Automatic annotation (TrEMBL):
InterPro entries with a match to the protein in the record: DUF6597, Homeodomain-like_sf, HTH_AraC
UniProt-listed Gene3D superfamilies: Homeodomain-like
Matches recorded under PANTHER family: ARAC-FAMILY TRANSCRIPTIONAL REGULATOR, HTH-TYPE TRANSCRIPTIONAL REGULATOR EXSA
Residues in HTH araC/xylS-type domain copies: 158-257
Protein name: AraC family transcriptional regulator
Protein keywords: DNA-binding, Transcription, Transcription regulation
Length: 274
């Protein structure tokens, strides 16, 4: 289930996701970038970051923040899961915390190390409530957090994001420089600080997810090559190369995957034996 935040939180939070699975066999989940960062509350059982051949499990924190991803991360589960995921706007974490977003790049960090013990209380409260009350608790928590922060000037970043999203990620840095009036060096510094990726890498993620939208909505008569061109890829091989770099699988494998928990969180076959 996906739920939008109230209007006053929409500059920071894109949506809340509620994901549940009753499977108790080993599951391998693949998380890849969608241009946003997020916080995951695992309410029933901890997720696992790695399982080695000696069956030693390295558990993730019960609640954690993930930064912008350069590629993808594998996460495992061997018990029922109940996840609440707070998906932030591309610059939402920076606006809320005032911490440069590139400090979280490719990282998974226990949320109490960032936001303090209040998050442990929130975790406990979320585990005891139905979804409606969970949403109310999340809104209350993030309203309080937003009220404590002075919002940094995001005019340049917001304008740049509007430009990139309007062009579906297909643009040159020169075009962005001309659009904003700022130098390439300044734009790169601000993007890394506020979003965690430089403009071109962020644009590549947006273009990939525009392709995924076209893929999801395609008719039976539409082939992959046509969608590749429509999404701005020079040819199908270019698309497949970029797709594998971000997700580790091919577009067809993604299309026929029946374990999509979210656009950027999918179940993949596991060769790990418990």
């Amino acid at each position: 289930m996906q739920v939008s935040p109230p209007k006053e939180l929409s500059p920071y939070i894109k949506h809340y996701l509620f994901l549940d699975s009753k499977e108790t066999d080993i599951q391998k989940l693949r998380l890849f970038s969608d241009g946003n960062t997020g916080i995951v509350f695992s309410l029933k059982n901890k997720l696992i970051s790695d399982i080695n051949n000696y069956k030693v499990k390295n558990y993730l924190p019960s609640s954690f923040l993930y930064g912008q991803l350069n590629g993808f991360k594998e996460i495992y589960s061997d018990k029922e899961i109940s996840l609440v995921i707070v998906v932030f706007q591309p610059n939402g974490i920076y606006q809320l915390l005032g911490i440069p977003a590139n400090e979280f790049q490719d990282s998974i960090i226990s949320i109490d190390a960032i936001l303090g013990l209040d998050t442990l209380i929130l975790q406990e409260q979320l585990s005891e409530q139905n979804n409606e009350k969970k949403i109310a608790l999340l809104n209350q928590f993030f309203r309080k957090l937003a009220n404590k922060k002075s919002i940094p000037n995001q005019l340049l970043i917001n304008s740049s994001l509007d430009f990139i999203l309007a062009n579906k990620g297909l643009f040159s840095v020169k075009q962005l420089v001309e659009y904003t009036g700022y130098t390439e060096r300044h734009l790169e510094r601000k993007f890394k600080e506020c979003i965690g990726l430089n403009p071109k890498k962020f644009g590549n993620v947006i273009r990939l997810h525009y392709f995924l939208k076209l893929l999801k909505d395609k008719s039976e008569a539409t082939n992959l090559t046509t969608i590749s061109y429509d999404a701005g890829f020079s040819d199908q091989s270019h698309l497949i190369k970029e797709f594998r770099k971000h997700t580790g699988i091919s577009p067809r494998e993604y299309l026929f995957n029946t374990g999509k928990l979210a656009n950027n969180l999918i179940k993949t076959p596991s060769s790990v034996l418990l």
